[in-house]
User: What shape does this take?
Amino acid sequence: MFNPVDFHALSKEILTHATTYEEALRRTQISRCYYAAHLVAREKVRRYYPSLLMDLKRLGDEHFLVREKLAASVIHWGISSMLLGLNQRRAKADYNLNAVVTKAEAEKAIEESEAIIAQVANIKSL
Amino acid sequence: MSVLEMPEPPRLGFDLEDKFGESADSANYSVWTNDSRLTTCVRLHSEVNSRISFTKELLDFSVMHYFSFSSLQKWSTLHCELNTEVSFPREVSLYLTRNPDMFHPLSRVSQIVDDFLGEHKIESTHSILIGTDVEAPDWESLVIRYALKNVKHSEVLRLWNEACEKASKELTSETAKKLFLLFDAD
Assistant: This one.
């Protein structure tokens, strides 16, 4: 099974790469950082609620379902908020062509993704 | 201006009832909204409306725990109007009209985070907006977004966690799903 943490590791690794496509690289980093965090959180939620994410009418609904399930525990509300923050960075990086995505934003996304992954790993109950 | 009767008394109502239940005969609550302003209205009906101390006590309690009064009038019943004194974007006002249970958590979380950042002497600005998700067009939530000045992002993350831990104590399973707290370095 693919380990979504590798998306985060890849984002960190390519941070140092020089390329002609700098902004495309930054946008890719942010997007992969979000998916690393989201997928790690999703798998944690799935472990406790195996049927929650089955047979979704829209696959995209899993994003808010994961956030809501974490938030509903109240104790993990902070993780859920951070996931939404990273989700919003990712929406800008993937969809907003008029915005400028800076290196600082990519670095923030890497830190946020790392923090979310670490906190999700520490979840003992949901 | 429209009036939306609350489906059930908000937390404010419970708090006031606990504090003043013996003094007031009955109470009712409503939320008023006109585009960008939202006002919680509390009317306490009391036989003892001439008691100045009751009025003053209610005023002190409400100002201390909630917001400032825009007006305090005494009629044959006591009419107290609490005003948020916050201008929301229109969509936030509409969301609160649809979800009146979120009014109290929103104000409490904002207050807790403001106090928390104040204690740490951190300058910040904040805005209240509607969070959306490109993957789920029907999903929406309240978002309080803080921009912290002169703070490294690693420190922002630490403060974010701590603020969430404090503020989450004001939330229930249901309200936590409809309100999110975002921090970012300015």
